[in-house]
UniProtKB/TrEMBL annotation:
<comment type="function">
    <text>Catalyzes the stereospecific hydrolysis of the cyclic amide bond of D-hydantoin derivatives.</text>
</comment>
<dbReference type="GO" id="GO:0005829">
    <property type="term" value="C:cytosol"/>
</dbReference>
<protein>
    <recommendedName>
        <fullName>D-hydantoinase</fullName>
    </recommendedName>
</protein>
<keyword id="KW-0597">Phosphoprotein</keyword>
<feature type="region of interest" description="Disordered">
    <location>
        <begin position="472"/>
        <end position="495"/>
    </location>
</feature>
<dbReference type="InterPro" id="IPR050378">
    <property type="entry name" value="Metallo-dep_Hydrolases_sf"/>
</dbReference>
<feature type="domain" description="Amidohydrolase-related">
    <location>
        <begin position="55"/>
        <end position="438"/>
    </location>
</feature>
<dbReference type="InterPro" id="IPR011059">
    <property type="entry name" value="Metal-dep_hydrolase_composite"/>
</dbReference>
<dbReference type="GO" id="GO:0016812">
    <property type="term" value="F:hydrolase activity, acting on carbon-nitrogen (but not peptide) bonds, in cyclic amides"/>
</dbReference>
<comment type="similarity">
    <text>Belongs to the metallo-dependent hydrolases superfamily. Hydantoinase/dihydropyrimidinase family.</text>
</comment>
<feature type="compositionally biased region" description="Low complexity">
    <location>
        <begin position="472"/>
        <end position="487"/>
    </location>
</feature>
<dbReference type="InterPro" id="IPR006680">
    <property type="entry name" value="Amidohydro-rel"/>
</dbReference>
<dbReference type="Pfam" id="PF01979">
    <property type="entry name" value="Amidohydro_1"/>
</dbReference>
<dbReference type="InterPro" id="IPR032466">
    <property type="entry name" value="Metal_Hydrolase"/>
</dbReference>
Amino acid sequence: MSVDVLVRGGTVVDSAWQGPADLWIRDGVVQALLRPGDRPDGAAAARVVDASGRLVLPGGVDPHCHVGFTSGEWTSLDDYRQCTTAAVFGGTTTIVDFAIPRPGQSPIDAAHRQRAKATEGLCDAALHACVVEWDDTTADQLRSLAADGIRTVKMFTTYRGETMADEDTILATMHALRGGDGMVVIHCESNPIVEDAQHRAQTRGGVDAGHMPDTRPELAETASVAAILAIAESQGAPVYFVHQSTPEAVELVAAARRRGLAAFTESVAHHLVLDETRYSGEEPERFVCCPPLRPAATVAALGRHLFTGEISTIGSDHCCYDLAQKRAHRHDVRQMPNGLPGVETRLPVVFSRYVVDQGLPLPRFVELTAANPARTNGLYPRKGSLMPGADADVVLWDPDARWQVTAADLHMATDYTPYEGMWLTGRPTTVLVGGRVVVDDGRLVDDRPLGRHLQAGPIDLRGLGWLGPAAPAHSDAAPAHSDTATAQPGPTPAG
Ligand code: URP
Ligand code: ZN
Ligand code: ZN
Ligand code: ZN
């Protein structure tokens, strides 16, 4: 028989509300928010979790997390167990990973293989599918994936020869998802501009890690976002831009949303907290990620968009490479593994730099890091909320804890953190997953792998602030691509 849990004495923070309240949990689900001290009718033997002096938050939802990700010659070092262990230590209780097909593999096969791993995790996980090339089976695969609860589809406009999709493929995928059954989530950097910048960098300063910013300029991002917005608009398809690092790109998306397109911005913690001076310091390879860290003025301007509502979510873009991997080709960023470890530090660095230092309201912090990522992934309000009926994934957060980040104290499967030595205020102390106390007082007390693969429901576009289409929706006339195996020829597969 499961014992009820009462989380008592804390300040509950949801995305729309904060105040003193107790939480009553049964069978892994929030039953009620209670007036402090009230005893719920029918809760007999209850385990009491003392939350006095703590904020009580819905567990974080990380919408952008690469687990054991293979790109070129590199594979990031964690598995589901390691990644979710680090996640829960950092207050995140749901991760959304990517099923990136290997060459020759179908999106559906990649997704089925990756989702089977979710049960190794300490917390729940959802998945983004990925389309690299369109063929006459792709539309059916997307329909079948959506029916199976995998509704978000990752695409890349860069990384030629790896995961880059051409614009025909992006348009065809958006067309297939235009009804709102799913959504393209896209990495936007104009590949021609990136490759040209890399070529120029090579003939000037070099392409070593210290020159990372020269190789992927801000213009590559804004140009690509504008092009992809136009395609989405032509199809009336929702679109979500991952790891936007420039305020110009965020503003393009916000303007499209005002015009009636369901378009959303994700930013990631490192672009909001670190700047490009890191590339002039020791070991710039520790900071090599795409897009690169930006100048301090860009970071500050990007951060202001957290307050205005123009940024919808904050992810980590977690990629667990270690220093040996980062160092191996540090003389040439084109051969380096891109990405930074961050699933464990996402919430603490954003809380400290934005809530504590700049007064970001607590409900907005929860909206950006839990509620909205749950909405964009069709998981809300089961995840990202503490309202009755939600999964009892609960974080007790000490808002005053002062601590210094060091890789030795973290749990990610790597030997470094880009935040080494940084002083932060605020951190999770106790974390419940499905009503079970998994981390208590900073120690792992329940390591049972009870993670589940989460099936996405419809994407909550209205909850994300989309007001609906401004113009008549896209007609269903056939586009210049194939929806079915028997229709016109599809776009030429990328060479
Ligand atoms: O640098 C990054 N972001 N690496 C991971 C792959 C991607 O582009 O998200
Ligand atoms: Zn990316
Ligand atoms: Zn990524
Ligand atoms: Zn069609």
